[in-house]
Amino acid sequence: MATSNWTKAIIHLDMDAFYAAVEVMDNPALQGKPVIVGGSKERGVVSSASYEARTYGIHSAQPVAIAMRLCPQGIFLPVRMWRYKEISRQILEIFNRFSPLVEPLSLDEAFVDVTGSTRLFGPPEEIAKKIKQQVVAETGLTASAGVAPTKFIAKIASDIQKPDGLTIVPEGKVKEFLRPLPIEKLWGVGERTRKTLAHLGVETIGDLGGVPPELLKRKLGKHGLHLSLLAKGVDEREVETERQVKSIGHEETYREDILDMAMARKVLLSLATKVAKRLREHNFVGKNVTLKVKYHDFVQITRSITLHKPTDDGQKIFRSCCDLLSKTEVGKRPVRLFGISLSQLDLANKERQLALFEQRMEAPKRNRLNRALDTILDKYGDEAIVPGTLLEE
Amino acid sequence: MELTIQRDDLLRGLQKSQSVAEKRSSMPVLSNVLLEAKEQQLHLTATNLEVSFTGSHEANVTKEGAVTIQARKFYEIVKELPFPELRITEKENQWVNISSGTTEYNLVGLPADEFPQVMKYEDVEWVQMEAPLLKEMIDKTIFAVSTEETRYNLSGIYFEKVETEDPVCLKLVATDGHRLSFIQKPLPEVTKFTFDKGIIIPRKGMLELSRLLEESEQVEVAFQENTAIFRQGESTLIMRLIDGDFPDYDTVIPKNCERVLEVDRSRFMEMLRRMSIISTDRYRGIRCKIHPEHMEIISNNPEIGDAREELSVTYQGEEMTIAFNPRYFMEILAVMTSKVISAKMIDESSACIIAGEEDEGFFSVVMPMRL
């Protein structure tokens, strides 16, 4: 069998319009129609849109209300997460046939390192074709694939000829491939970085490669150096099969803007309780609490605080968030979304030095209380027991 | 400025100066030592703005003046000079020439007026103290001081007057929130200390003082507003007190411990050193299984391997397994002198109190770990 001359071969697979495609597969009558999967009409955003819907200018993360205006005849469907998860498992199982090194990024995309699989399955481009074929045969869905020597180039490549695309970037062609691409294609180039770079006359990845790294460092800090390496096609990150969870959180968009402090505290308590439960489910404690606030005009800020000791207690998280509120304009400016997340995670049952100055019994007692609450919530649902202040009307 | 001075005299002062001076600072002059030549004396001053050192040495001053030069380099130079006498001469633009025999250095200096004003004190009431006693008290508590920047009120040793007892005592306490060290010694002089109940003196100052106290039998102590001053011969250390409340440590000292372990201090120490070799930042705890006549220590690190050892002990109480950071124990055992030490415990998740008969007035408290 032919061996390849790839020193490293990574395939990035991205399912085409995944949620919408699953809906169409489950209901063939929708075939060829603009299908939009998303949240509520009032405040929700588009999660996925079929290619037919995209021709109307609909894209993910767009408010549903706008999508409805753009395409009144569109078929708007709610998110059926359980179903997408089910299909996602099937797809990952296919990927796993070709390599044990599979790193899922979300339900509909993953990296597969096939460097060591070429003796069994042929050159990387052949493997990518086989994976695509098996996905279509077994799920009826199409995927786009990018094959490259590094993760980030593979990811860019999979996006080049969507849907049902296959783009191959061999080692020798990396620079040529990157040169004409707009810099937004690079991971970590958002609006702000793009503007900074535009001032330097940088519009394409090729332009970026021509800027001295020291200058990028001065303008963008460490991030600048990282971008400079990416622009040269250097990306040392390995495909990680078990991704390290970096943070655990939850956010909610509210049907009506939150105007006053009392209401804000109330929804934060509810969020904090949920996040704490999630932490406990994953057996994590977090040391850093981040509060995210999106105001009515979509301006978004985050404020965070580092605790003395990592926690998985909803009350503690809630109290930190209340402290953080003073660093926001909540109460003065209407809020459409709140999010709470904990980072600097650690395993809850890892060895832990106990502290001297702590109200003796409080910690273990709260711990037991939280575990007992979790048991009840698991059995009777998330609304079975809630903090008293959240009960009203 | 121009003078000649005895190398060994100057060296003693410079050693303390360079130790107090900042190693890396946003203010370059803080890395320097201030030299002031006046009336047949060379005065040295170094400061990190929290702790200051001043020293005076006899010198043959032919021209008075003042300048600052890099403390660390100056010390290293003087240490290596081949003859017992050296000459210091200030040149133009704060260049300083140092010569001894055929050896010659020219160092870049900074003007003396850029050097910060050291806390001034006048008319303070000096109290005489036995230097070895104060040194013992500092050494037996300083290791427990917190080095975390966020725990400002724990970043020094707490000095407390105990006037309710007879004889009156001085008490020193330090804690980092995980362990605590305590020593109390009878000291009639405390009634003359001009602070109310207790003060917190920064760790850095205590470290310098402990070194200074090695040199003689007596030390003079004075307190003034927010400073503590310690004087020995021609050397003076001035330190700014920590502005914070020391926690109510008495509530965390365990009372009514029913389980009592007694063990040979040096054998326990050696055992802990062996067992802690395989501990790392992630896995630092060791388990002690305590039986009536022996104790088994197990150290387990999934990244490296495991170790175990047994030691005979005397123990009264229920058999138990308790986990600790071995470093906390080793630091305590290292400052003690008792042949046999006792560890009194309540249970595996409460603080343990360590003491020894020959370590009078001293005990230490350690919180266990949960493994």
Biggest interface pair, counts: A-B, 9 and 21 residues
Strand content of chain A: 15-25%
* Main β-sheet, spatial strand arrangement of chain A: 5-6-1-7-8
Number of domains of chain B: 3
Give the radius of gyration of chain B. 24 Å
CATH architecture grouping of the largest domain in chain B: Roll
Mean pLDDT of chain A: 87
- End-to-end separation of chain B in angstroms reads 64 Å
> Helical percent range of chain A?
25-40%
* Count of individual helical segments of chain A: 15
CATH superfamily of the largest domain in chain B: DNA Polymerase III, subunit A, domain 2
- Strands of the widest sheet of chain B, in order across it, are 5-1-7-8-9-6-2-3-4-17-16-15-10
Estimate what percentage of residues of chain B fall within beta strands: 35-45%
Number of strands of chain A: 13
**Shape summary of chain B:** elongated
Weakly predicted, low-confidence segments of chain A: none
Q: What is the general shape of chain A?
A: globular
For the record, what CATH class of the largest domain in chain B applies?
Alpha Beta
Question: Would you mind describing this structure in some detail?
Answer:
The complex is a heterodimer of chains A (393) and B (371). Chain A has 393 residues and is α+β, with helices and mostly antiparallel strands. Chain A has helices at residues 18-26, 51-54, 64-70, 81-98, 118-121, 124-139, 151-158, 174-178, 191-199, 205-209, 213-220, 222-231, 261-281, 314-325, 362-380, and strands at 10-15, 35-38, 46-49, 75-77, 102-106, 109-113, 143-148, 166-168, 247-258, 284-295, 300-311, 335-347, 352-353. Chain A is built from 15 helices and 13 strands. Chain A starts with 9 loop residues before the first strand and ends in a 13-residue tail after the last helix. The model of chain A has no long low-confidence stretch (mean pLDDT 87). Chain B is of the alpha+beta class. In chain B, the strands form 3 sheets. Chain B has a 13-stranded antiparallel beta sheet. A 9-stranded antiparallel beta sheet of chain B has the order 14-11-12-13-26-25-24-18-22. In chain B, strands 21-20-19-23 form a 4-stranded antiparallel beta sheet. The N and C termini of chain B lie far apart (64 Å). The A-B interface holds A 308, 351-357, 364 and B 150, 175, 177-180, 247, 252, 283-285, 323, 325, 349, 351, 365, 367-371.
